[in-house]
Amino acid sequence: MSFSKMLEGLKEREKEKLLIIGLGAFYIAVGEDAVLLHEKLGLKCTCFKDHICKVGIPRNSIGKYMKEIDKLRYGYILYDYDSKEKKLIELSYKEGKKSKITDKNINCLACVGISKYEDDDYSIALLRFIEELKRKKGIKDI
């Protein structure tokens, strides 16, 4: 089973909560959870896999960000993955409001992690068009 399959299984079990999982040097959230944390806390989205964003929170900053998430009053589960023991550990569980975000990405065409778009002239044209619209309207995201 891959890490992404584990995430899918966890999300299926707890669809309405933010899932944040410690993996290596970071705690990460993916999909709609990543988009929410990007929008509410300004965390930078990168590609997790095709059409799915992720955000990373350094382990030494997780306390600060969990306080911010608590202020937003969203329900969440904070996990840690122990790669040596191959064990998932639930660190924190909180009831709260549900996210209304359903998008799993903010703009996959702008993500350099998706190589299939790099040499595609149509995707490049669309990305340039979107960037020009944003510049003309003075907005960050469409």
Structure description:
The protein is of the alpha+beta class and 142 residues long. The protein folds into two domains: 3-105, 3-Layer(aba) Sandwich (MutS, DNA mismatch repair protein, domain I), CATH 3.40.1170; 107-142. It has four helices and six strands, in the order H-E-E-H-E-E-H-E-E-H. A six-stranded mixed sheet has the order 3-4-2-1-5-6, with helices on both faces. The model is unreliable at 114-119 (pLDDT under 50).
CATH topology of the largest domain: MutS, DNA mismatch repair protein, domain I
- The rounded distance between the terminal residues' Cα atoms is 35 Å
Beta strands, count: 6
The pLDDT mean sits at 82
CATH architecture of the largest domain: 3-Layer(aba) Sandwich
Order of helical and strand elements? HEEHEEHEEH
Q: pLDDT under 50 segments (min length 5)?
A: 114-119
Compute the number of helices.
Answer: 4
- Name the structural class: alpha+beta
Q: Which strand order does the major sheet show? A: 3-4-2-1-5-6
Largest sheet: 6 strands, mixed
User: Hey, roughly how much beta strand do the residues contain?
Assistant: 25-35%
Dominant shape: globular
* Fourth-level CATH superfamily of the largest domain: DNA repair protein MutS, domain I
Number of domains: 2
Radius of gyration: 16 Å
CATH top level class name of the largest domain: Alpha Beta
